[in-house]
Each structure stands twice: as structure tokens, then as C-alpha cells.
Specification:
alpha/beta, 184 residues, 5 helices, two-stranded antiparallel ribbon
Length: 184
Amino acid sequence: MGLFNKKKEEKSCCCGSGCTPEKMAQAEEAKTTAGIKVLGAGRAKCHALEDATKAALAEMVRQHPAPQFADKQEAAVRGIEEGIMTGGVIVRHLMLPGLLKDTKAVIRYLYETYGDSIYISIMNQYTPMPFVENIPELNRKVTHREYDKAVDYAIGLGVVNGFIQEGGTAKESFIPEFSGEGLE
């Protein structure tokens, strides 16, 4: 059995639209090119979400084109810590297990598009939830090796404006309370 209890020979696109094996292979190959990819990228809504994400990020960077940090005087006036970021954009990317190639594509897109005008936070705190216990690809944490490779990749590209997480962040204590109230 494969993912979602489907036989492996019954290839089905992740978006459920019945893509051909050729189209699925093309979609996988496209993940290696620079860009933000959204799961289920075979559907028009997913392409629209990817485009909207890129447009929203571009607008945020347009409005706040450079990181700004509180100097001693501003910190005293505002009652904040000196050196804290007070303006600019931080993109927080949550790595998923087994998707190092996708993480690299996101980092490459962000750095090639925005360079040092943004900060990139590479997060390793993905925590498998009980409802994914039958999905082996998602029922594990990001390994130290995967995370280290992502960080090394970012550094190799030249990313200096970034944040990394130390071990021990993939815990249930990092999961916010969410009741689903208000969702249709």
C-alpha cells in the first residue's frame, strides 16, 4: 500500500485530479527550480495560492525594503531591547520531513529574489500529530541531518540574514491551541 492506502501502481496526483505519470514527473522536476511550491501544485487553486504568496511577500518587502534595528536611543524611548528588529521582513519556513529539496527551493527563491533585504528563519519544529500516524512520510520529525543540510545550503548560497533553531524544538509545547472554531 502507498500513501493514503492507495496501491502504488494506481498513480494519483496529490491534488486528486488524476494527473498522468508524465505530468506528475514534470511537477516533481519543477520542484528543483527556484520558487515557492505549494503541495498539490497541479491544480489551478494551488497555482493561485503560490502566486498570491509571492505577491504578498513582494508587497511586504516593498513596504519594508530593509531590516531596521532599535539603536540605544530608540530602545530607551520605546522601552524595548537595543538591537531588536523593529522593521523589515522575516520569512519563517517550516521544514517538513523528507522534503529537503523543497526547503532548498524555497531558500533559493527567497535569497535570489530578495537577497539580504529579508531575514530567513529555517524552522525545524515540525511535530507529527496523531492523525498522520498512518502516513510514514509525515509521522516523523525532521532529522538533524536534514536540518543541517538545509542550513548548510543556505550558508553556501550566501544567506547571512537568517535564524536557525537549536535542537529540542519539535515538541507538542510548540503547538498552539486551535479549536477550529469559526471554520466552515
